[in-house]
Amino acid sequence: FPFFFVQIISSLFDQIFITRKEMREVLTIEVGQAGIQMGNAIWEQYCAEHGIDRTGQRKEANKNRDTSFKVFFEETESGQFVPRNIAVDLEPSVIDDVKNGPFASIFHPEYLLNGKEDAANNFARGHYSVGKPMLDRVMDKMRKLVERSDNVMGFQMAHSVGGGTGSGLGASILERLTVDYRKIPKLGFEVYPSPNLSTCVVEPYNALLATHSLLENTDVSFVLDNEALYGICQKQLRIQKPDFDNLNRLIAKVISSVTASIRFSGELSVDVADFLTNLVPFPRLHFMTTGMSPIIPKMNVSMIPVDVHKITDDCFKPQNWFVKFTEFDPDEDRYMAISLSYRGNIQPRDSSNAIQWLKDNNKIRLVEWCPTGFKVGLNDVPAATLESDDIAAFDKNAVMIANNTAISRVFTKRIAQKFDLMYSQRAFVHWFVGEGMEEGEFAEAREDLDCLSQEYLDTCSSCYSHFFFFFYKQNIVVVCAVMFVLTKCFDFFFELEIRS
Ligand code: GDP
């Protein structure tokens, strides 16, 4: 009896005084072919970094190490780690590939959803006709994932904007998440189309309509531009004809660095809310440019830079960016905010020195109204190298996430111009209207994109007015002196005139 009594007292003590540490989960959702294939590469990268094998078991040696990765993985009663993830497509082939692929057994089959009929590269089919019944299934699964979490930190969606499912159904899911979970931030990893890897004619329509929805329904969007990724693979990694696998492995490397400070506990960690607070000065201007360094092919391992200055500097070079800008001008295209995530053995002092060096040498131009501009994350675990990687292994790297005004040109020059050409003839519009979309939505989305580019311009015009004000204040003495001389000259000539 005394033993039993002591046990009851002890369990009561536990319940009252020892509260379980609350987990903050990130729930991910992959929509459409690009989203799911990109997701496969990302989960493979995460598993390698946390020592999780293809059956979801964690290797013995890692068992007592950092458990922050549970933000992304749920532990089952049998000790298996399952991604907190939903993968959804409107047709079966891509989901079937996952079910029959090497990582099939880590995903919960209930959360791999597919329909029977695809979106036929049509935003309207994904958003209205074919996508509608799927939306309820997805939201039902999402509700279950949320219920199984302690306190969701954020949602992350991976999808493309050029197809039909990722863009149309992706937009519907984001809209519903906004309504159902208003306070939980939403991050998007959005693949923007490239002419080199184009899979359909109406990509500009889909991309424009999806971007219109992203403006309202994501808090941060990471623009992953297939054109830039294709260029990096060809020029830097010397892959003659890159395919989606090559692109996705690069994307996985950068996303793993973006989320590293959430998945590992570190000295200078950045969580989802930190991203928002530091990177988004105005709610609509939330489209990020990402860059990574080093990007060196496997055969050139001797060229991997080890010094923090070099990797920081390289991050800010347009050839290392995952968005391609036509004629990036470092003077005109200003940064509104920057987050730098370092991985590997890097001391805070070294990263601060590197950033100061960038500022001192005018390598970056911040808008006048945001003088600090930098958020730094340090994580001492380097990115894992996979056998299938095209990129050389590195023991330290840097990833830049920047809010730069140049991003508006991706929308205006790359999407809106092509959209205008087709829409001026109303070409292909009947396919969208036939699936339940109103024609007015095209005009509305197009107008909204014009407003967005004007908003980006305004942030810079206000920096020019600040610039003139600053110039005026600095030179007030000179201005007074010039005005004095001019008045004297005027008096002199006026007197001369009167005398003559
Ligand atoms: P959906 O399934 O209807 O959403 O269509 P997709 O996801 O295939 O969207 C087509 C766009 O996504 C095109 O711009 C393709 O170039 C791009 N895309 C398709 N698959 C991949 C992929 O695995 N990786 C990348 N980076 N882009 C892809």
TrEMBL record:
Belongs to which family?
Answer: Belongs to the tubulin family.
For this protein, the record's CDD domains field holds: alpha_tubulin
Q: Some GO term, biological process aspect, for this entry: which one?
A: microtubule-based process
Which Gene3D superfamilies does the protein's record reference? Answer: Helix hairpin bin, Tubulin/FtsZ, C-terminal domain, Tubulin/FtsZ, GTPase domain
Q: Which GO terms describe its cellular component?
A: microtubule
Give a GO molecular function annotation for the protein.
Answer: hydrolase activity
The annotated subunit structure for this chain is: Dimer of alpha and beta chains. A typical microtubule is a hollow water-filled tube with an outer diameter of 25 nm and an inner diameter of 15 nM. Alpha-beta heterodimers associate head-to-tail to form protofilaments running lengthwise along the microtubule wall with the beta-tubulin subunit facing the microtubule plus end conferring a structural polarity. Microtubules usually have 13 protofilaments but different protofilament numbers can be found in some organisms and specialized cells.
Respond yes or no to whether keyword Repeat is given for this record.
no
Q: What are its cofactors?
A: Mg(2+)
Does this entry carry the keyword Metal-binding?
A: yes
The segment(s) forming the Tubulin/FtsZ 2-layer sandwich domain are 268-416
Instruction: Relate the protein's function as given in its record.
Output: Tubulin is the major constituent of microtubules, a cylinder consisting of laterally associated linear protofilaments composed of alpha- and beta-tubulin heterodimers. Microtubules grow by the addition of GTP-tubulin dimers to the microtubule end, where a stabilizing cap forms. Below the cap, tubulin dimers are in GDP-bound state, owing to GTPase activity of alpha-tubulin.
Q: Which PANTHER family match?
A: TUBULIN (PTHR11588)
* Name the UniProt record assigns to this protein: Tubulin alpha chain
Chief subcellular location: cytoplasm
Q: Where in the cell is it found?
A: Cytoplasm, Cytoskeleton
Keyword annotations from UniProtKB, A to Z: Cytoplasm, Cytoskeleton, GTP-binding, Hydrolase, Magnesium, Metal-binding, Microtubule, Nucleotide-binding
| InterPro entries in alphabetical order | Alpha_tubulin, Tub_FtsZ_C, Tubulin, Tubulin/FtsZ-like_C, Tubulin/FtsZ_2-layer-sand-dom, Tubulin/FtsZ_GTPase_sf, Tubulin_C, Tubulin_CS
List residues of the Tubulin/FtsZ GTPase domain: 69-266
What chemistry does it catalyse, as a reaction equation? GTP + H2O = GDP + phosphate + H(+)
